[in-house]
UniProtKB/TrEMBL annotation:
Residues 60-256 form the Fumarylacetoacetase-like C-terminal domain. Pfam families: FAA_hydrolase, Rv2993c-like_N. Residues 3-55 form the Rv2993c-like N-terminal domain. It comes from Egicoccus halophilus. This is 2-hydroxyhepta-2,4-diene-1,7-dioate isomerase. GO terms for biological process: carboxylic acid metabolic process. The keyword Metal-binding applies. Residues 255-274 are annotated as: Disordered.
Amino acid sequence: MARIVRFVHAQTGPSPRYGVLEDDGQVAVIEPHPFTRFTPSGARVPLEGLHLLAPVIPSKIVCVGKNYRDHVAEMGGEVPAEPLLFLKPSSSVIGPGEPIRLPTDLSDEVHHEAEVAVVIGKLLQRVTPEQALDGILGYTAANDVTARDWQRRESQWFRGKGFDTFCPLGPAIATGLDAADLRVRCWVDDELRQDGTTADLVFDVARLVAEASQVVTLLPSDVLLTGTPAGVGPLLPGQRVRVEIDGVGTLENPVVDRQAGATAETRSNGHDTP
């Protein structure tokens, strides 16, 4: 198993780079990136002090609704007969430590949703579940931030799911994991709100990737969010939200009011580069 991070560091130049986290706390820089054949560059930088970015900027983020029975129950719905798929825009992606900016001018009910994210490693088009597993590079942590009031108000979830900063990803891509029983937890400040496991998924990872590939061609670095367990709840300015996935690590983001001022998240998170 390896944990791959994407980062910027003065020693390696201004452009985002990829590296493999080693046991001694160093990051071995790789060339060119993990979505093709890569080699070690020979450079090593300490993890401490690195500016970690979202591990990928996908062409698309495929999401799955109602994929944990306990979450379906808390929302008052019914378990679907087939995966409920929708999209989030890539512009919603931020990385570890980047602020989730609440659109308080448009929504007063924004929720966290801790999820296991699948990172696609090669082109997948109309594949079987068995073939789907072979096309997965690894897994990372995600927070499918949702404006719940907009989600209820509209049958299409563009606004409910698509605001800038509504898809934190990270801190690393963990390869070689068995996704059959990964623990998924979410804290807001010191309150544990979500505690589930992928063993309780209605549709497992292989089925989800295969189903998505029947509709859209999945490209290397695309991301598929697998659904959230029960315990979703509101986020407020000044809070910190942490998503922890077994084998991946902890994704932590502060929560702020976007009306209080904004920065160029897209630039700071390397959206203009692979």
